[in-house]
Specification:
The complex is a heterodimer of chains A (303) and B (164). Chain A has twelve helices and 14 strands. In chain A, the strands form four sheets. Chain A has a five-stranded antiparallel sheet with strand order 4-5-10-6-7, with helices on both faces. By secondary structure, chain A is α+β, with helices and mostly antiparallel strands. Chain A folds into three domains: 49 residues, 2-Layer Sandwich (Uridine Diphospho-n-acetylenolpyruvylglucosamine Reductase, domain 2), CATH 3.30.43; 119 residues, Uridine Diphospho-n-acetylenolpyruvylglucosamine Reductase, domain 3; 106 residues, CO dehydrogenase flavoprotein, C-terminal domain (Enolase-like, domain 1, 2-Layer Sandwich), CATH 3.30.390. By secondary structure, chain B is α+β, with helices and mostly antiparallel strands. Classes of the chains: A alpha+beta (303), B alpha+beta (164).
Chain lengths: 303, 164
């Protein structure tokens, strides 16, 4: 690894100060869990001049309900997501997604924020959060801004973050708390596999009309970034729930995807997976909606 | 250079090393603790697994600056020449290792699992070893040994395992 100057930030404000000091005239990288960054730096021809370590910024490690919704700090690890009683109750899909990332060792180090900032199209944290219309909070030295996660990603390994900015938290909006959601990943092995395709679906249900409300479908590894499937969503909106409708939505979602062929899978195979996984994710989200209705639970805390 | 002080296997240790040094390099090159192995160096193989503040991690993926003040347990801290940890005894008993390169990482992962979950299922053991690549054994004998060690640590007898 090329040498660099190392600074450890005490908290997020300290990190912003360090970024303000160095980002203007040096190449700065932020390290959180380091599971992606260090693996990259060991092979990089040109490393950063400065590394700012935020792994001790405890103010970015909270999982809390705020006025806006469920806030997950950028430094929350995948292991913490899997063990959070709040997340387990509201969003088992987030727990399932976290469980498919790497292995125990990497889940103990790797953070939700890091997974998003790295912006690999096959990331497993992205689809569930996109299907829940998550927002992200970005702090810079000019203040804070919030954008939808869908606008945070620019392309493979590219986000809208500026060199002196920090991802602070991820917010699942209040109106989506407890929304029945399901995540599915298709990899070539059970452990430590990257997704050939991953899909998340979330649905509300109009029980009187037996119809889908606000169906949201997000697809990973089939475009330069995690994407929504707008045509499939539009098809399902207000539509009577049936196995045929969910299968058709899967077929329509194929048209929303733009997969490429690479050494892991052909584009054709990925298109097939989009149809199958979208259908299954919808079926499971619908099943969860029914279970919660029977239990009289809306998936929210204390409900 | 970065000055780092941390607890390794219960002892306070210090070193002054370049900031790009990983915890794994610190353990091996500065402290002569060569139990944790340098395998892939990118967090895939798990041969470098150590426990940091009660959690198993890839020591190749932490910078020294990130372990300042933390508590690290390596395979060398698990036992001494006179006293083996039950996991080590049963790995020996069952012949759970062949070439042995993955062994320290596997045993540390198993120790972290049993610390949190004293009676794991086969599925839970497989999940806990998902980040430890072994190309010799096929894992079966490791799983038997970990189950056996969990019995000993719970104060129960090790059930007889039918030998192949």
């Amino acid at each position: 690894m090329k040498s660099f100057e190392f600074f450890a930030a005490k908290d997020s404000n300290d990190a912003l100060t360090l970024l303000a000091q160095h980002a203007a005239n040096a190449k700065v990288k932020i390290i959180a869990g380091g599971t992606d960054l260090l693996a990259d730096l060991k092979f990089a021809a040109h490393g950063p001049d400065v590394v700012v370590d935020i792994s001790r910024a405890d103010d970015l490690k909270n999982i809390t309900i705020t006025e806006q919704g469920l806030s997950i700090g950028a430094l929350v690890t995948h292991t913490q997501i899997m063990r959070s009683p709040l997340i387990r109750q509201m969003f088992p899909a987030l727990v399932a997604a976290a469980h498919t990332i790497g292995a125990v060792q990497t889940r103990n180090l790797g953070t939700l924020g890091g997974n998003l900032v790295t912006a690999v199209p096959s990331m497993d944290s992205g689809p569930t959060l996109m299907a829940l219309e998550a927002m992200v909070t970005i702090a810079g030295n000019g203040g804070r801004r919030q954008v939808p996660l869908s606008e945070f990603f620019v392309g493979p390994r590219k986000t809208i973050l500026k060199p002196d900015e920090l991802l602070v938290d991820i917010i699942i909006p209040e109106q989506n708390l407890g929304k029945p959601t399901h995540f599915l990943k298709f990899g070539l092995r059970k452990g430590q596999a990257l997704a050939l395709v991953n899909v998340a679906a979330s649905v509300w249900v109009d029980w009187e009309k037996h119809a889908f409300l606000a169906p949201r479908i997000a697809l990973g590894a089939v475009a330069p970034k995690v994407i929504r499937a707008p045509q499939a969503e539009a098809y399902l909106e207000g539509r009577t729930i049936s196995p045929e409708a969910m299968a058709e939505a899967g077929r329509i979602a194929v048209g929303d995807a733009k997969p490429i062929s690479d050494f892991r899978a052909s584009a054709e195979y990925r298109r097939h997976l989009v149809a199958v996984l979208t259908k299954r994710a919808l079926e499971s989200a619908w099943a969860l909606a029914q279970t919660r209705r029977l239990e009289g639970s809306n998936g929210k805390r204390n409900a | 250079m970065v000055n780092v002080t941390l607890k390794v296997n219960g002892e306070t240790r210090s070193a002054s090393v370049p900031p790009e040094t990983t915890l794994l390099r610190l353990l091996r090159d500065q402290f002569n603790l060569t139990g944790a192995k340098l395998g892939c160096d990118v967090g895939d193989c798990g041969a470098c697994t150590v426990i940091v503040d009660s959690k198993p991690v890839n020591s190749c993926l932490m910078l020294v600056g990130q372990v300042e003040g933390r508590e690290v347990l390596t395979i060398e801290g698990l036992a001494n020449a006179d006293h083996l940890h039950p996991l080590q005894k049963l790995f020996e008993h069952f012949g759970s290792l062949q070439c042995g390169f993955c062994g320290p990482g596997v045993i540390i992962s198993a120790k972290a699992l049993l610390d949190e979950n004293p009676d794991p299922s086969t599925e839970e053991i497989r999940d806990a070893l998902g980040g430890n690549l072994c190309r010799c054994t096929g894992y079966t004998k490791m799983i038997e040994a970990i189950k056996g060690a969990s019995c000993i640590l719970r104060g129960e007898e090790v059930p007889a395992v039918k030998s192949a």
